[in-house]
Amino acid sequence: MSEKGAEALADERIVTLVLRGRTDLFRELVKRHQRRVHYMGMRFFRNDDDARDFAQEVFMKAYTALGSFRGESRFVTWLLRIGFNHAANRRRASHDTAGVEEDYPESRYPGPEALSLRAETAEAVSRALASLPGKYRICVDFFFFMGLSYGEISDITGFPVNTIKSHVFRAKGMLRDALRGSAAEEYHEM
Amino acid sequence: MKCDEAMRRLLEHDNAPGYPLPLRLHLRRCAHCRAEEARLRAALEELKAVALSPRDMDISDAVMAGIERLESYRRDVPMYNWIGGGLAILGGIVLISFSDSFAWLRGSFGGDFEVPLSIVLGIVITLYASAFIATHLDMAESWMAKRRG
Ligand SMILES: [Zn+2]
After folding, report:
1. Ordered mean pLDDT values, 10 residues apiece, chain B (149 residues)
2. CATH architecture of the domain covering A108-190
3. Which of A15, A26, A30, A146 to mutate: most B Cβ within 10 Å?
4. In chain B, where the domains are located
5. Which of A54, A62, A127, B64 is deepest in the core (most CB within 10 A)?
6. What is the reported pTM?
């Protein structure tokens, strides 16, 4: 099978083939998930160069550890967990602080404002994220922007599902209120 | 179901398609909640659809080059060289007792040469084993993973 043919295969199947010696197929996994890993890097390191380095390191780590992928979670969850731990270690090493739990970056990259979102959505998301304790911000971020489930976010970050749920609940509530407000304004303007 | 309860369930809903039946029934009956649901769903879809990172970013070449370096590093010392090297060390240890090195050592250092000799040989074997293990960690890992699974 060619690298092209790999496009139709599930991640987990590709992992099996890579472990059997089809190293070249790992490229397909990189292509599928690089933007998510890069995005995670942007969240932690706030600049594109570091995020790219980070993403490369995460994929290299994943390749080396591929034999330990148990198939108990989706491949992408497993990959993002490696990324999350790596980011925490890197930040810990460079800041000499307790790491990601305390100082998840304030930055709002990619800046919902810059993302061609409708103004009220962007505004509400920014406010919702800013109102959360630092270490939970990334949970809401994963839920909103990456479309991950509560269980997956818990798998990746190690936070309890209920904690994640309650923070997402609050953030969604803020989003809903903002949308409700703007809908009312439109109604009055009519 | 009341509107409050419907809203609570809506905000609780996981990132998965399909609402629970009671919520679906309420949404069918209640235009107010239906409008809220549509706005919220559209906003969440919008968030998921925005470009997370540049669409044209591609690090796959760099990653594959890194992997190639890993692999060729390992290929530099093929398995039969490792085995050959190990056998050579063992053979040397066995053969040393048949050579006249012992007599020479005894002549130079007296009868106590065996202790330092054992230490030297021990260090050589340890270095060899650690080098082998260090370069084959991932192999050991996948082997153990296969045994566990
Ligand atoms: Zn209602």
Report:
1. 93 91 95 93 84 79 91 68 85 79 74 78 89 77 73
2. Orthogonal Bundle (1.10)
3. A30
4. 3-49, 79-148
5. A62
6. 0.69
